[in-house]
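Field reference: sequence -> structure
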Amino acid sequence: MPHDFPKWQNVYYHYKIWSQKTENGKTILDNILDELVMSERVINGRQPTTTMSIIDSKSVKNALTAEEKGYDGGKKNLGN
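Structure field:
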């Protein structure tokens, strides 16, 4: 770690605390990020949580191999 960072033991200690799962099954960091996203949505005049999502069935079908193949913005398979 860079010399101006705290000792690695201190960083690891805090990482362990923040990455422990809470009663809702999410980490403290996940809960904080969720709160930030919801507050940002409200600031922008939107509902705190999403009401709809779109899943492209082709993307879901190939999700496991996407890292191996790669996709461009037009969803053309670059791995073939």
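Note: Helices lie at 8-18, 28-43, 57-61, 66-69.
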